[in-house]
Amino acid sequence: MSKAGRLVVLVSGSGTNLQALLDASADPSYGARVVAVGADREGIEGLARATRANIPTFVEKVGDYPTRAEWDAAIAARIAAYEPDLVVSAGFMKILGTPTLDAFPVLNTHPALLPSFPGAHGVRDALAHGVKVTGCTVMLADEGVDTGPIVAQAAVPVQPDDDEAVLHERIKVVERRLLVETVGRMAREGWTVSGRTVRIGNHTGGETT
Ligand SMILES: Nc1nc2c(c(=O)[nH]1)N[C@@H](CN(C=O)c1ccc(C(=O)N[C@@H](CCC(=O)O)C(=O)O)cc1)CN2
Ligand SMILES: NCC(=O)N[C@@H]1O[C@H](COP(=O)([O-])[O-])[C@@H](O)[C@H]1O
What we know:
Strand order of the largest sheet: 3-2-1-4-5-6-7
CATH topology of the largest domain: Rossmann fold
Structural class: alpha/beta
Bound molecules: the ligand Nc1nc2c(c(=O)[nH]1)N[C@@H](CN(C=O)c1ccc(C(=O)N[C@@H](CCC(=O)O)C(=O)O)cc1)CN2, glycinamide ribonucleotide
Oligomer: single chain
Strand content: 15-25%
Largest sheet: 7 strands, mixed
Radius of gyration: 16 Å
């Protein structure tokens, strides 16, 4: 049974999901706290949010390394320095390699109902397809792109005049609530993974991660 008290959160942009986790973890009963925030780029609001909250930050840029494998190793080492129980990818726009995945459970939030519309542009792709309902997914990352086992999902309606920005903002309201609730339950109750099934709480029959 895994527990998720110490969180390292990875961001690449505005960090509103990060802010939701920071706000929730201000309550000691939440069961988890953000111990560090990492990013793949400088000058983003997600890093500024961490600094305002007096949370340590780090940046590892892919372009600073001769190979992707060296970046994979570098970001894994930066994460490891904070000894997380759970890494939360919250708008982090880089695919994490096995040095990170083999060392820590990584929870990712995606703005679509996986397995539909994986990748860097889930909202745009769902809108282009003409779906009437989309949503958000919280899943445990594996070596694939958004292929890991699903932990939680929530549906969000698409309105006729939606553009990508409007729809994404509607999704993000639901997504922040889903992520905060899911991380909190994982921290307080633990989780198990059996094949593609993730169970939160003290369930029998699952593999212990
Ligand atoms: N090993 C994994 N790492 C990550 C996953 C995952 O499922 N497995 N999810 C992503 C988050 N994500 C969707 O939820 C996602 C983000 C970015 C990309 C992507 O194609 N990235 C490109 C670069 C894009 C850019 O720099 O703007 C890349 O990595 O080369 C796909 C899916 C977090 N990490
Ligand atoms: N495929 C990855 C992806 O699209 N992630 C999405 O980026 C947004 C980041 O918002 P935030 O920086 O305000 O939390 C979130 O909606 C997250 O699901």
